[in-house]
Amino acid sequence: MGKTLNTGTVIQIKLQHDLGFMYAKVVNLCDFAENDLSNTFHLILYSYNYILKNEKDFIGEDFLNSEPFAGPLFVSDILWAIKKKIYKVKAEVELRSYEKIVPAFRSFGAMVFKPFYFEDEATSWSYFEGGAPRKYITSTYEEVKHLEGNMAHDHEDVETRLSMELLYRRDKDLKEYYQLEGQHELTFYNNIFYKTPFNEVEDMLKGKVL
User: Fold this and answer.
1) Cα separation of 198 and 66, whole Å?
2) pTM for this structure?
C-alpha cells in the first residue's frame, strides 16, 4: 500500500457495542478537485447500510446494491488504521455519481464563550467548497442542513459516529450506550438531530448547497 488509497477502495469498519461490521467507500478528493489538496485532508468515506456480523459473508454485489448510510466523512488516520489492521480493505468498486464530486461541507458559529460548542447552540451557519476551507460562505441552516460537517475523523471517531447513528436509527436509547460527555460524543449526538439523514437526501442534492 502506498501513501494514499485509490478512489473506490472499500474498507471494513468494526462498529461498537457488538453491532457488527459496516463497509464504506473511500474517495480521494485529489481525483476530482480543481485545487491541489494533497497537503490537506483529502480522503473521505461514504458508508453504506450493509452490516454483517461475520466479515467472511462480505459480497461485493450486495454491498453495491445497499443503501447509503452516512457521508461524506473526512478521515485523518485511515492509512495508519489499515496498516494496523483496524480497518480491512475488502474490494475496489465503481462510484455513484454523487461520489464523483467534491462536496461542500458546513460549519457553524455560536454566541457562547467556551472552548467547545455544539449545533444545538448554533446562531450562524456557513459552508466551504472545493475540498478545503479557503473561504467560508455565509448561509442558513435550511441551505446546509443536509451537508456533512468539516470535522476530520480519526478511526475511533468514525466508529463512534457510525455506531451512534445506527443505534439511533434502530430506536435505541443512546444514553444506555454512551455517556454523552466530552467534545466528540456530544458533537456526534447533536449531528444526529441537526443533519438530514444522508439516505434521505436526493442523490442530485448530496454534497450540494440548496
Assistant:
1) 13
2) 0.95
